[in-house]
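Thread: "does anyone have the structure for this chain?"

Original post by V.I.:
We have the sequence but no experimental structure in hand. Need at least a predicted one for the grant figures.
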Amino acid sequence: MNEATKRELKPKLRFPEFRSAPEWKTRRLGDLLLNHPDYGVNAPAVPYSENLPTYLRITDISDDGHFLSDKKTSVNIDITDGNYLSEGDIVLARTGSVGKSYKYRKEDGKLVFAGFLIRIKPDHSEVNSTFLFNFFYTRQYWNWVAITSARSSQPGINANEYAMLPIPTPPHNEDRDDLLEQQTIADCLSSIDALIAAQTQKLDMLKSHKKGLMQQLFPSLEEARG
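Reply from O.Q.:
Generated one for you, tokens below.
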């Protein structure tokens, strides 16, 4: 491990209860996982069917990491339990929209991930999966993606390269599996995400209400001609 990976870090903003705690350190992503990052299935998408597994492709992931369920597709090959995503799993795009990420949620239904995605399974004794997922939306991460993906003639990041990604992590008490600072950060950011989702829903309702009002407030030329 080089000096850049070992160096200690101090965030600009820290919750009061952790200000006297030791500084953060960078760790390789691979050291925070249950196993090595793995690839999805290599198979074409087929029209969606309730009798087939739902397929997760790069294009099914929104820019803010949500599953786009309005245009679902399926995959028609023999599937094993290991091909399905589990709670806490995160997938990362290895080509195309390189670096794009999605964290699996049970409410999205059973999903099989495609071959242009790489799955990581966080070790929950080492890292909080929501804390880790939020890191994939930081400037540091996207700077790393830009540099790493540009090193080859075909832009992309493979599983071995993702495993080397440096992750800044707060210290934790290994004797107690204490990830309290990670959990506190994850809870804070999740509460903001919930507020954003609620406000977005309200905004969509207002837009729909305005559209309905406009249709009633302005006379219809077609009806007048009739």
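V.I.: this helps a lot. The longest helix spans residues 180-217.
O.Q.: and Residues 3-189 form a domain with the Adenine-n6-DNA-methyltransferase TaqI; Chain A, domain 2 fold (CATH 3.90.220.20).
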